[in-house]
Design brief:
Methylamine Dehydrogenase, Chain H, globular, six-stranded mixed β-sheet, 37 strands, Nuclear Transport Factor 2, Chain: A, 38% strand, LpqB_N, disordered N terminus
Amino acid sequence: MKRLLTLLAVFLLVAGCANIPLETQPAVVPGDKPGQAPVDVPEPADGLDSLTVVRQFIRNSATPGTANADARVYLDDEARRNWKPSPGLTIIDNTFGTVYDTGTPTGNPDEQVVNVRGFKLGNLSPDSAFIPVKAEYSQQFKLRKQQNGQWRIVDPPQDLAVTDADFATNYFRVPISFYSPDSGTFVPDLRYVAAKPQAGLPGRVMDLVLQGPSEGLKGAVKDLLNDQVTTETNVRSTDDGTLDVALTGIGGASLVDRNLIAAQIVLSLQTVTLSRIRLLADGTALVPEHEYWRSSELPNYNVDIAPNSELLGLMTVNGRVRSLGDGQPVGGPAGNGGYKVVSAGQSVDGKRLAVVEERDGRQWLRVGDLGRDLASVDLFGGSLSRPTWRPVARGGGLSGEVWTVVDHNTVARITLAADGRWVKAGVDATLLTGLGQITELRLSRDGSRLAAVVNGQLVVASIVRTADSVALRAPRKLQERDLKDVVDVDWATQDHLIAATSSSSLPVVKVPLDGQRMDTFNSSNLTPPVHGVTAAPSRQNLVADAGGLWVASELGEVWRPQAHTVTDADPFYPG
C-alpha cells in the first residue's frame, strides 16, 4: 500500500505538468507507450567480460524503457539496428547461472558463447497477464569483441527473460474489471503494466480495458467494448486535476451498457489514480448528465456475491452442522444428528445448505433450505468433496448451483429445476480432471472461476458458460515449485486465495489468483497439520488444526483461538 500511494502521488505530480494546451486540438500521440520512442542510454562500463555483459543484458531487459534501450546497449551495432524482441516476457528465478560454453568452440578468439541456466517461474503473455510455469530455463548467447575491445552480444534472443525481483520492481499489477452477466458483478483480471513513466499509467491501463479480457478469462465474462471502441485522445490529466478519458466508437450502446462501461473504466483506473474521471464518448458525456465519475459513486456490484455480515459461518463437528457464531447446532436433521454429515456448504445468501451425508457405505448429496429437511440428490460415490455454491443473479434474487467432486475425478454440478427438484447438470471438466486427483473444489463467489486442490497442488480455472454448456478452461497450477501438500483452499477476495497445507513449515499461505507470488501467514500458535481453511471478503481468516479453530486477519498476525473452537471441526463461510 505504501508503494501504491507513493506511485500515485508521483503520478499526479507528473501528470499535472503534462497537460495538452487548451487552445490546441488534442490527438492520440504516437510513442506514448513504452517501447516505441528512442532514448539515450549510456554505454556499459569498459572492460566487462562476456558473462557480465550477458547478466547485465538480462537485468536491464526488465526495464520497459522505450525500444528496450537499456538492454539494447549490450548488443553490437548490427543487432542494435535489427533486434525486434517478441511481446511478453519470461520471468526467471533471481538466482541464475552464466557459464562459458566449452562444447561449442567458435574457432575465433574474438568470439565467445555463454550459456544461461535458471528456473522459469512464468511468462508475461502478450496480453499482459502472468501465466505460471514450472520449467528449467536455458538460453545461449553469442558474443563478439568489438573494435574498441568491448564484448557485445551479436545474436540476442527474441524472447526476453527477466528476474522475478526486477519484474516486481518495474511492473505494476492492476486488476482490470470485466462484467459477469450471470452474477451481475465485475470480475478482476490481473494484468501487469510498466510502472514508469508514472504519468502514462492510466493510459496503459485503459489500453488493457480496450483489449478485453486475457486469454485465461475469455468466455467467462462479457467484453462490454467492441473492437471499434478506442480512445479519441490520450488519457490525460487536466489543469483542474481531472483525468480525461475520451472514447469513440461507442455508437448506439444502451444506457444500461453505458453505465456498465463507465463502471468498468472507473473500477479499472481506481488503482492508478485518485482523480475524478471525465468519461466522454464521441465528444459528449458517455452517460448523459453524468460526465464526471468517482469510484465512490458506483453502485455496489458485489452486493449479491459477498456474504452478509450477519452470516457468521458454520462448521461440521462429529457429523453435525453447528454455527460458528454461537457454537449451537443448526435447525433440522443437519444439526440434530438426523444425517451423518461428512461436510457441508452454505449458499452465499445463507438461505440454503448442501451436505455430504454418509449413508449405506457411500456418500450422498443433500440440498435444501437451511434448518429444514434436505432433499437427497441422485448423486453419490465413494467420496464427495465439500459442496461449494455458485450464485446467479436473477431479478434481484439468488438462485444457486452446487458443485462437488465425485471420487476425486468427476466434477458434478447440481441445479434447481423449475419443479423445485435439485438435479444433475453437465460440466466439461476434462482439462481439470486431466491434471490428476481432485480433493477440494471452491467456486469463486462471482462465479467466473474455481480453485481446486489437484494432487496436492493449487489450481485455478475459468468457468465458461454458453446457452447449453458449462466448461472449465485454462487450468493453471499456482506456485507449483514451492506450494505442495495443499489440503484446502478458499477465496479470500475475488483475486486472492488462502490455502492450507499439511506442511509444518508452510501451513497457511495467501496467493493471488495468477500465482505470481506467495505470502506466508504467521505460524505461531498453530499445531500442524492444518486440515481446513475458510475465508471471505471482510472476514477473518479461519483455519482448523489439531488443536481446534484459529482466526487471523492479516499475514503477520498471530493466530488466536476462535470463540467457539472445538477439535475436529471443519469451518466454512457462505459460498
